[in-house]
Amino acid sequence: MDMTGTQHIDSPRDVVWAALNDVEVLRQSIPGCQSIEKVSDTEMNAKATLKVGPVKAAFTGKVTLSDLDPPNGYTITGEGSGAAGFAKGSAVVRLVEGAGATNLNYEVKAQVGGKLAQLGSRLIDATAKKLTAEFFEKFGEAVAPPETAAEAATGEKQKGWFRRLIKK
Fold first, then answer.
1. What superfamily does domain 2-167 belong to in CATH?
2. What is the model's pTM?
3. Which region, left, alpha or beta, applies to residue 81 given φ > 0 means left and ψ of -120 to 50 means alpha?
4. Residue 4: predicted pLDDT
5. Which residues of 108-117 are buried (b: 16+ CB within 10 A; e: fewer)?
6. How far apart, in whole angstroms, are the C-alpha atoms of residue 65 and residue 128?
7. Residue ranges, the chain, pLDDT below 50
8. What is the strand order of the sheet 85-98 is part of?
9. Residue 48, exposed/middle/buried by CB under 10 A (0-12, 13-18, 19+)?
10. Which of 51, 104, 148, 155 holds its CA 20 to 30 A away from the CA of 88?
11. Based on the number of CB atoms within 10 Å of its own CB, is 73 exposed (0-12), middle (13-18) or buried (19 or more)?
12. What pLDDT, on the 0 to 100 scale, is given for residue 95?
C-alpha cells in the first residue's frame, strides 16, 4: 500500500519538528498507542492495539528515524508484529514552512501479512486512511497555537499544549 498527502499545521516548522520528535506527543497522537519509549535519538520501541475491520490486533515493534535533516524532515521506518500478523512500512516526512504555518508532506509505503492480509486490500487501505486522519487530527491539536482568551471563555477543548510547553 502506498499513500501520499499533505497536512497543513498552523504552527511554525520548528514547533512541528520538535513535536515529531517528542515521544509524549507521538504517544498521544498515534491511534491505539499504549506505550512508546525512546531507546536512542533515532530508535523507539512501541506497543499499539488497532482494530482493522473485525480483527483487533496488538503490535509490538520498533521505530527507526533516518535521513535526519532538522528541521526539514526525516524518514521514519517501523516494523511490528503480533498474533494477527505483521505490519511494516516507512514514511518520508518533509516540513515546508510558510507564513507561520507548516505543510507536512508525507509519502508512506506499508505492507501487512498474516491474518490482517486476509482481510483484503480495500479494508486495509480504508483503515490506513482513517488512522492517518486520526493521527493528524490529534497531532495538529497538540501543536496548534495556544487558544485565545475568547476560546478559553467559551470552554472549548484545550489545544496547543505542546506549543505552550516549548515556549516557556
1. START domain (3.30.530.20)
2. 0.81
3. beta
4. 93
5. bebebeeebe
6. 21
7. 148-150
8. 2-9, 101-113, 85-98, 73-82, 55-69, 43-52, 33-40
9. buried
10. 104
11. buried
12. 97
